[in-house]
């Protein structure tokens, strides 16, 4: 199978060739023909397998086939949960559409909206956006969605999470009912599928690999470590494994900042990336990491989706996520596009249940190892026994000393 055999335009084939790609990945091979036909799609594949091209290529093909008169209007809307992912998708649209007469734009919060508004006023065919900024600019009458033909939710499991559901519903109501809807993600729970079925019509389900799986070339290791030893163990692993580039995940923003300070004091240059950082700070940190100016990028789950770092060799879960699906996305930052990668998790006593949840999701066991010199001493806290609820229907024996019973005894004597 080649990209040409999928029926894509010559201009797109040229752009694909310029990027060094020759054959489509399994998700691209399955999704592109269905999207070209204009059908709704629910697509699932591992991270790093080319999902973005799986929907951007056919969208660009379909849009370029249409003759547009007058000012350009938004005909394709792509929503993402994070700014980083929005930027990545926008870059893909520009790269693959380099030889087409189409205009694209990206909008997200955390930056001045004026440049975004100026771009929108010039006319846009493809808009990549995060929900909050999109709704803000629509309310200010800078955006019209009445001519959207294709609506994409990228990382749909997170987009349809309860935190985004209301925004998605509001945006869906602003778009014509007659449209093509595409949902792409690496993970789909049963609950998310139910929600997806509510906005898809006669959708074709495309699955390149089993759901909630990780890339085959990502080796997974887990170390049982005391919480107080995690920083020392991380530093030891960085030096012992000669890590030149490592993406480290924490659960909290404060934890990410604090870990960066500790790493810097030990001579390991690092930067933090999370929701409290401005967009410029996040972009600069990511660019410094890619350029090799810093060795460790410490991130919260905001970075688990959308970070595309070519040939990233190491990912470390300094703290395990409490949502098993987030583990899949975290370690999916390594082992991309067929490259090998290593994902390491540092597991404290209070995180053993999280590990069990991850193993259950992946249907595999991740053996727990120990690090020489850092044998764990803390034990999981015993689970509190559930108190038995009193049976309120059971008849209680009367108290012979109660006022009511004493009165009965006096009346009986009489």
Automatic annotation (TrEMBL):
Broad enzyme group: hydrolase
Sequence motif Q motif, residues: 1-29
Sequence ranges assigned to domain DEAD-box RNA helicase Q in this UniProt record: 1-29
Domain of life: Bacteria
GO biological process terms, semicolon-separated: response to temperature stimulus; ribosome assembly
Transmembrane segments: none
Single GO molecular function: RNA helicase activity
Domain Helicase ATP-binding: 32-206
Entry keywords, A to Z: ATP-binding, Cytoplasm, Helicase, Hydrolase, Nucleotide-binding
Entry annotated with the keyword Metal-binding: no
InterPro entries per UniProt: DEAD/DEAH_box_helicase_dom, DEAD/DEAH_RhlB, DEAD_box_RNA_helicase, Helicase_ATP-bd, Helicase_C-like, P-loop_NTPase, RNA-helicase_DEAD-box_CS, RNA_helicase_DEAD_Q_motif
Composition skew (Basic residues), residue ranges: 385-397, 404-414
SUPFAM superfamilies reported for this sequence: P-loop containing nucleoside triphosphate hydrolases
Catalytic reaction equation(s): ATP + H2O = ADP + phosphate + H(+)
Enzyme Commission number(s): 3.6.4.13
A Pfam cross-reference name: DEAD
Domain (Helicase C-terminal): residue spans on this chain: 233-379
Chain intervals for the UniProt region annotation (Disordered): 374-414
Family of the protein in this entry: Belongs to the DEAD box helicase family.
Protein name per UniProt: DEAD-box ATP-dependent RNA helicase RhpA
């Amino acid at each position: 199978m080649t990209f040409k055999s999928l029926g894509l335009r010559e201009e797109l084939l040229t752009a694909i060739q310029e990027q060094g790609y020759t054959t489509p990945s399994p998700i691209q091979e399955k999704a592109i023909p269905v999207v070209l036909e204009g059908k709704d799609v629910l697509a699932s594949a591992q991270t790093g397998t080319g999902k973005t091209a799986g929907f951007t290529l056919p969208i660009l093909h379909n849009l370029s086939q249409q003759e547009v008169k007058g000012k350009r209007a938004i005909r394709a809307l792509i929503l993402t949960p994070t700014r980083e992912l929005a930027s990545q998708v926008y870059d893909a649209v520009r790269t693959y559409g380099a030889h087409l007469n189409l205009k694209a734009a990206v909008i997200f919060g955390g930056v001045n909206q004026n440049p975004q508004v100026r771009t929108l006023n010039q006319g846009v065919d493809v808009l990549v956006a995060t929900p909050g900024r999109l709704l803000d600019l629509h309310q200010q009458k800078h955006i019209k969605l009445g001519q959207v033909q294709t609506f994409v939710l990228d990382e749909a499991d997170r987009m349809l999470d309860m935190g985004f559901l209301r925004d998605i519903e509001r945006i869906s109501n602003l778009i014509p009912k007659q449209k093509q809807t595409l949902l792409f993600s690496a993970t789909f729970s049963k609950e998310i599928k139910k929600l997806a079925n509510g906005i898809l019509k006669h959708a074709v389900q495309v699955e390149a690999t089993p759901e909630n799986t990780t890339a085959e070339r990502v080796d997974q290791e887990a170390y049982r470590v005391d919480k107080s030893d995690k920083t020392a163990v991380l530093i030891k692993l960085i030096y012992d494994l000669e890590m030149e580039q490592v993406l480290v995940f924490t659960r909290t923003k404060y934890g990410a900042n604090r870990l960066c300070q500790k790493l810097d004091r030990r001579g390991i240059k690092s930067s933090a990336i999370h929701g409290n950082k401005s967009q410029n700070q996040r972009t600069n940190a990511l660019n410094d990491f890619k350029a090799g100016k810093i060795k460790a990028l410490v991130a919260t789950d905001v970075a688990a989706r959308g970070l595309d770092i070519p040939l990233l060799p190491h990912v470390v879960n300094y703290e395990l996520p409490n949502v098993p699906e987030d583990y899949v996305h975290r370690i999916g930052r390594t082992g991309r596009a067929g490259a090998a990668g290593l994902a390491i998790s540092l597991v404290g006593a209070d995180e053993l249940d999280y590990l069990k949840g991850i193993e259950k999701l992946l249907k595999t066991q991740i053996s727990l190892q120990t690090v020489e010199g850092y044998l764990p001493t803390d034990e999981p806290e015993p689970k509190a026994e559930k108190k038995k609820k009193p049976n309120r229907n059971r008849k209680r024996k009367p108290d012979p000393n109660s006022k009511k019973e004493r009165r009965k005894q006096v009346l009986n004597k009489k």
